[in-house]
Design goal:
alpha+beta; BirA Bifunctional Protein, domain 2; Rossmann fold; 8-stranded mixed β-sheet; 5-stranded mixed β-sheet; about 45% helix; globular
Length: about 450
């Protein structure tokens, strides 16, 4: 008995309906990026482990999918090493490549390798799958898509402003109400300085980034475990629980950080960005608890959440001053965002926001009554397609009921019929599958109705 086929855990098949929805998401985001002058690149699914290892921390290294070397990959391994079962050491000898973990590190590698070919500032977008050897669970996959946009080679805060405008435009086109949260790593650094815990900035940001998930008491407990004193934690409370308008928060935090040059720089940057974003369709809020876990962020940081359905972050990003430094090109500043395609897909499903025409495959099906009728329909089908209308001719001369069922199942809105009377008149009957209305039309009339 043949073994039943399956796919690896944490991966998915996407059928025609799912792909129509996903392509609607891809095409919408792509069109907005291009509206702002971004250009598309792609990088290989495989990167060398030298490129990937050490860029995501110890935990990230464990989640990398490593690819066995071709041929006899055990040729350089002796029996003693096999018995010792030192996994990391063995992997370094039998694997030279791995599947990319994200799009950011490959992009940094790309910029360094192609520096002389790139016009700075370089504005790139990239939509490709990434892989993580994580434990599969609801909303978490081992293979998933990221849709990133970055600007490198410019320190201007106009880039941050435009990225937030891109976010606003994308979700306005989707019809999704979102809240854009903004903060600045310099503000967080300043806070760590004024409470006397500058050496604990990473621990502080990692802890307060969990505030929404675990609550203030558990955040304080984690801070205490990481070595902050009760006095330092007490000083932190009114800052991370700060309320009011963006202007009020900025004024308060500027007073708190008056002795921190770095902190005040972050306040000024945030004030500048917010000053250009008053006319967004969606709300934008300064949130001092927003930390974004990745340590390479150095300036403004962003996160986006849907307002009308429970979901985690559906977009996020920030400014990084030295990402390419990991590949020997220090000092190249950049800022970027990433759209969570899979979560946006779930949000649009939950809110039923896919436009009807985005899910339609063909617009019209030509019924097949036989060879003579097919020969009559073929040039009409060609004319309809030449007009940019997606059209099908049913390939087999089978029962009318079966052909109409095909059209219904695929949600094709129009059916065209050509029998003896239509051929004699040099016309074709067009049936609207939703209303049942039928009209005898010329080819030109048929095209105009479907287009309208």
């Amino acid at each position: 008995m043949a073994q039943k086929p399956s796919i690896p855990k944490g991966t998915r098949d996407f059928g025609p309906v799912e792909m129509a929805k996903r392509n609607y998401i891809f095409n919408t985001i792509r069109a907005v990026y291009e509206l702002y002058g971004f250009q598309q690149i792609e990088t290989p699914a495989q990167e060398t482990l030298q490129t990937l290892m050490g860029k995501y921390g110890e935990e990230g290294d464990k989640l990398l999918f490593k690819i066995l070397n071709s041929g006899d990959y055990l040729s350089k391994i002796d029996d003693e090493e096999l018995v010792q079962r030192n996994t990391l050491r063995l992997a370094s000898k039998i694997c030279e490549k791995g599947l990319r973990y994200d799009l950011t590190v490959p992009f940094a590698r790309y910029v360094v390798m192609h520096r002389e070919e790139l016009q700075m500032p370089f504005k790139r977008y990239q939509v490709q799958p990434v892989w993580r050897a994580d434990r599969p669970q609801k909303g978490r996959y081992r293979e998933f898509y990221q849709f990133d946009g970055d600007v490198v080679g410019s320190d201007s805060l106009i880039n941050e402003v435009e990225l937030m405008q891109i976010v606003d435009t994308v979700f306005s086109r989707f019809g999704v109400r979102v809240q854009i949260k903004i903060n600045n790593r310099k503000i967080l650094t300043g806070i760590a300085e004024v409470i006397g815990a500058a050496d604990k900035i990473v621990d502080i940001t990692v802890a307060i980034d969990k505030l929404d998930k675990i609550g203030i008491d558990n955040v304080n407990a984690e801070l205490r475990e990481n070595g902050l004193t009760d006095e330092q934690i007490e000083k932190l409370q009114p800052i991370i629980m700060l309320e009011g308008t963006n202007e009020q928060k900025l004024a308060t935090i500027a007073e708190v950080l008056k002795d921190s040059e770095t902190g005040l720089k972050g306040v000024e940057e945030t004030k500048y960005i917010l000053g250009f974003l008053t006319s967004l369709n969606n709300e934008i809020e300064l949130d001092l608890t927003l930390a974004r876990g990745l340590s390479y962020y150095t300036g403004a940081i962003f996160e986006v959440k849907a307002l009308d359905t429970p979901m985690g972050s559906i977009s996020g990003g920030g400014r990084y001053d030295n990402l390419t430094g990991i590949f020997g090109m220090p000092g190249l500043s950049g800022v970027g965002i990433s759209f969570g395609v899979d979560r946006i897909y779930d949000v649009l499903n939950a809110l039923d926001l896919y436009p009807k025409d985005s899910l339609t495959t063909s617009r019209i099906l030509f019924i097949n009554f036989g060879e003579k009728e097919t020969a009559y329909c073929m040039p009409i089908v060609a004319a309809v397609r030449a007009a940019g209308i997606r059209a099908e001719l049913y390939p087999d001369s089978t029962k009318m009921k079966k052909q109409m069922s095909y059209a219904n199942t695929k949600q094709i809105p129009y059916v065209a019929l050509a029998g003896e009377s239509e051929m004699a008149a040099g016309k074709i009957t067009l049936k609207n599958m939703e209303t049942g209305e039928q009209q005898l039309l010329t080819t030109e009339e048929l095209i105009n109705i479907i287009k309208s």
